[in-house]
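Hey L., structure's done. Input below.
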Amino acid sequence: MTSSQVQLSEEAKTFNWLLDSFTSSTAGVKEAIAVSSDGLLMAVSAIDDRANAERLAAVVSGLTSLAGGVANWYSLGDLNRVIVDMADGYLLITAISAGSVLGVIADRSANLGTVAYEMTLFASRAGSALAPQLIVELKNAVQS
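Output:
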């Protein structure tokens, strides 16, 4: 079954719409993905290369785990955001809910404050609906 044949629930359609809307309406954002607590891709926006999306999910999952380890060792609380500043752009990670995270690739033109704010809005909008059943549905849909 291809992804075009998968019938998504209204909640899954809304989650994907929120991700697409975030990516297309936030200046400087090139790509965004949602990754579940087990490190698997849940949703993809603006990434044409499936292998690239999978690699980005692995990086986002690994950085989330490393940041969580530091937060635990130093009693710093839950993860809010991870920012990796590179010569030509940024990788930003924000917690959504239930251990899931939003990973974003932005170019140098992006205003980090604006991107971070929009990521927080996405997390608050999408996170409230992110029940275990929806996570499973999203992961199954993106894998097909």
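The beta strands are 29-35, 41-45, 81-86, 89-95, 101-107. Residues 50-73 form the longest helix (24 residues).

-- N.
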